[in-house]
Amino acid sequence: MTGPLKVALLGCGTVGSAVLRVLQDQAGDLGARIGRPVEVAGVAVRRPAHHPDVPAHLLTTDAHGLVTRDDVDLVVEVIGGIEPARSLMLAAFEAGKSVVSANKALLAEDGVALHAAAAKAGVDLYYEAAVAGAIPILRPLRESLVGDQLSRVVGIVNGTTNYILSRMAETGAGFGEALAEATELGYAEADPTADVDGFDAAAKAAILASLAFHTPVSAVDVYREGISTVTATDVARAAEIGCTVKLLAICERVGNGSPTHPGDSVAVRVHPAMIPTSHPLASVGGAFNAVFVEAEAAGQLMFYGQGAGGEPTASAVLGDLVAVARSRVTGAPGPGVTGYANLAVRSMAETPTRYHVSLDVADKPGVLAAVAQEFARHEVSISTVRQTGRGDAATLVIVTHSAPDAALSATIAALREMPAVRGVTSVLRVEGLS
Amino acid sequence: MTGPLKVALLGCGTVGSAVLRVLQDQAGDLGARIGRPVEVAGVAVRRPAHHPDVPAHLLTTDAHGLVTRDDVDLVVEVIGGIEPARSLMLAAFEAGKSVVSANKALLAEDGVALHAAAAKAGVDLYYEAAVAGAIPILRPLRESLVGDQLSRVVGIVNGTTNYILSRMAETGAGFGEALAEATELGYAEADPTADVDGFDAAAKAAILASLAFHTPVSAVDVYREGISTVTATDVARAAEIGCTVKLLAICERVGNGSPTHPGDSVAVRVHPAMIPTSHPLASVGGAFNAVFVEAEAAGQLMFYGQGAGGEPTASAVLGDLVAVARSRVTGAPGPGVTGYANLAVRSMAETPTRYHVSLDVADKPGVLAAVAQEFARHEVSISTVRQTGRGDAATLVIVTHSAPDAALSATIAALREMPAVRGVTSVLRVEGLS
Questions:
Q1: How far is B26 from chain A (nearest CA, A)?
Q2: Contacts of B148 in chain A (CB under 8 A)
Q3: Cα A141 from chain centroid (whole Å)
Q4: Interchain proximity A134–B330, CB inside 8 Å
Q5: Which of A203, B199, B229, B412 has an alpha carbon within 20 to 30 A of A404's alpha carbon?
Q6: What is the CATH number of the domain that holds B84?
Q7: How far apart are CA B395 and CA B241, in angstroms?
Q8: Does residue A139 belong to the interface with chain B, where contact is any CB pair within 8 Å?
Q9: Among residues A272, A306, A340, which one ends one of the domains?
Q10: CA–CA separation, B79 and B76 (whole Å)
Q11: pLDDT at position B263, please?
């Protein structure tokens, strides 16, 4: 086999167009790096008339036919969504073709079955572009850190919510106002649900956790809270305690101690949290992404870059494409994904977290004691208390130590019922405090 | 072949001991990730009596015999230095064994020949640990970003000098004082030449440039200045213009325009420079390392983590070890290194840089005009001028636009000769200004 490797491109939106452009403009460089020329065999789209820039002879509406064509060697799937992407991917594997995908939703829902199908066929399935756009993070987890034991992976992996939270911090705006601005500037989609409610980040968290801990984790295993309930008060309170609010995707290996999960387990969650402004993730602003990794031997690592956009995502797709093409040339698939550790996924209720809570209270003798008693009753230990104001307008700002999330949320619920507490004005989890 | 993969460990210092410990303690996990058990076949050291913690039956002084033993599958070289590391590596390749190395000096001196020998033998040569310790940067360059066009790689890749410069900035100390402190705390070696004079960073720059630009670059191709001439005044001047001083390893692809190098070329250099405090590299403090990458499609990326130490370096070695072991299991080598682009290496004199220069001048009419004229005479354009003080103690702080380095250094030499200039108190290149 010395002819060119032929690539089937499924989908030609923002990312697909960028991939196609590079495949055509830099074919010489890519071929030299692969060790064999590479060319586009066809581009499957729903409406060929919408793609006047793509040479007509490449366009087809028959994606399945393209994927299974004998002369196609490799498949790039940038359609997104579950179907028909899944069926097309499985058809590609069955026909002995490796797949590069940017499809976080599909990989997070069905990664185990897809990896099994690829392994059975002896082909590659790579999807660096599915998490954090251009930032190389999946290959470092799969390969560079594969000789280490990871303890935590914490990511800012959704640019839309990071932009909104950054703007709220900069301008003091509320969520609604910042979202409207993001929509106007094109940082948020018309229906922003997938981003602001954390679905996008949860899919990415599932993928990160699967690779980091050699354990199958699906999107449904991920605890998820979005940012629509984050208020200007939350952001202001964060600043007062030297923190900033970020939507974090947190994947942790948790030691034993849980009665229902003997041995280690993993906890995977997406929620807004206050982090100290000195934390490397705190300065990741606007639409940028970053992933912070803690490993036993390597210590702390951070990966930073552009998390979205056609060109950055295309960079990740093309890196994977060169990798699977090299595998095709050598005749052996690249490293696969192992789920051998198969750790239990811990529920959010059992996951240790820390809370910040701000309370409006009357500054009367005994109020702090009563509040502290409520924390103690739930076996939640308090780290710091700060009281501001006097008389009827006093505010208590409390940061707890680590405790099971259920105990913390039960404490908050109980505080809301206390007569001495006029209102719970801000509740957010806190991460990254020593 | 279903028996365990056997590893020969060459060298058992800080890194080697850490590698050996993980290989023994986490053999189960590593085996599961490789797909076959892995065990240590032997450990070659110079003085077995110095290694009471290593099981005696593993120790040998016959490194060559160990490397070529029939039952050895993979070789880990953590001896360092040029010989005998090079001969042992070549012997390993000849015997069909893949090599994992942490040897930046050897790879920077002789990478082309070693890669050729590995490719000829159909085996792998990986050395993630050689640059920036635990930070995955070589694999991302070799694989993740292989579908992109890189324009710049800028690294803080030497922890000793970064610690010294950080302390100079924090305490106002001079170089000698900060070096003494670093030596006392174990951050600098008794003979700090390799670190403070930039040899270590230059070797890493050569490796980074080779991978980033698919072009053979050796340590001798790297322009190198160390930090021993950086003064407390330089550091204070940097702070005054919103900058901080870092020792940078800079690998750039430079467009055409050079009379002696038509077409693109690469420029690779190591020197101290002022960078804006807002630059992501500016906050990389103490013994940490970071590598900043700019690519055409991916945009700006940064990789951050611990750059040295036994455990972090072992993490990188073990990641590579799993990779080469997987190749051994599949029977096909992993992706190699291409030097196909083979770009010319531009001399420092022709490399575009920017300078900061502080001058003590008499505040007399015409002095600024005379100074500006000297810049113009060398075709160096000035970006900003700030004058502080009056009368006999005036200071001019000038930041230039980009110009060939030779023009800038000629300008400085001419300024030193000007009667109106009482002294050139600080000269440093500036990077990362927009």
A1: 9
A2: 315, 318-319
A3: 14
A4: no
A5: A203
A6: 3.40.50.720
A7: 14
A8: yes
A9: A306
A10: 9
A11: 77
**Domain range holding B274?**
138-306
A283 phi, psi to nearest 5 deg: -90, 10
A301–B136 C-beta distance less than 8 A = yes
Provide the token pair at B378.
Answer: 């060398």
pLDDT of B434 over the 80 cut: no
Q: What is the pLDDT of residue B257?
A: 47
Contact B363/A at CB under 8 A = no
* Domains held by chain B: number: 3
**pTM of structure:** 0.95
Whether the pLDDT of residue B261 is over 60: the answer is no
Model pLDDT, residue B211: 97
Contacts of B147 in chain A (CB under 8 A): 22, 30, 33, 315, 317-322
Q: What is the pLDDT of residue B433?
A: 85
Q: What is the C-alpha separation between B253 and B271, in angstroms, rounded?
A: 17
Question: Looking at the structure, do residues B373 and B238 belong to the same domain, yes or no?
Answer: no
CB A234 within 8 A of CB A227: no
Contacts of B143 in chain A (CB under 8 A): 139, 143, 319, 322-323
Residues A203 and A172 in one domain: yes
Q: Between A and B, how many CB-CB pairs are < 8 A? A: 188
The tens digit of pLDDT for each residue in A177-193 reads: 999 999 999 999 999 99
- What amino acid positions of B are annotated as catalytic residues? 204
User: Is the CB of B174 inside 8 Å of chain A's CB atoms?
Assistant: no
> Is the residue at B168 inside a domain?
yes
Is the Cβ of B391 closer than 8 Å to some Cβ of chain A?
A: no
Which residues make beta-bridge pairs with A6? A39
Residues of chain A where predicted confidence (pLDDT) is lower than 50 = 257-261
- CB-based burial of residue A276 (10 Å sphere; 0-12 exposed, 13-18 middle, 19+ buried)? middle
Tell me: do A201 and A225 sit in the same domain. Answer: yes
In a domain, A366, yes or no: yes
Chain B from 310 to 329: CB within 8 A of any A CB: 311-312, 314-323, 326-327
The answer to whether residue B301 neighbours chain A at the CB level (below 8 Å) is: yes
Nearest CB to A299: which of B26, B280, B305?
Answer: B305
ipTM: 0.93
- For residue B230, the domain's CATH number is 3.30.360.10
Is B285 inside any structural domain? yes
The count of residues in chain B is 434
Residue A338 lies in a domain: no
Among the partner residues A134, A143, A296, nearest to B299 by beta-carbon distance: A134
Same domain, yes or no: A317 and A362: no
Give me B226's structure tokens: 């160390």
Structure-token pair, residue B148 = 């992109």
- Interface probe for A, chosen from B98, B213, B315 (most Cβ of A below 10 Å), is B315
Give the pLDDT confidence of A260-289 residue by residue, as tens digits. 445 789 999 999 999 999 899 999 988 899
More confident residue, A391 or B130: B130
Report the alpha-carbon distance of residue A92 to residue A102 in Å, rounded: 15
Out of B306, B338, B367, a domain closes at: B306
- What residues in A contact B295, CB-CB < 8 Å? 134, 315
Which DSSP helix (H) or strand (E) runs through A154?
strand A150-156
B146 and B225 fall within a common domain: yes
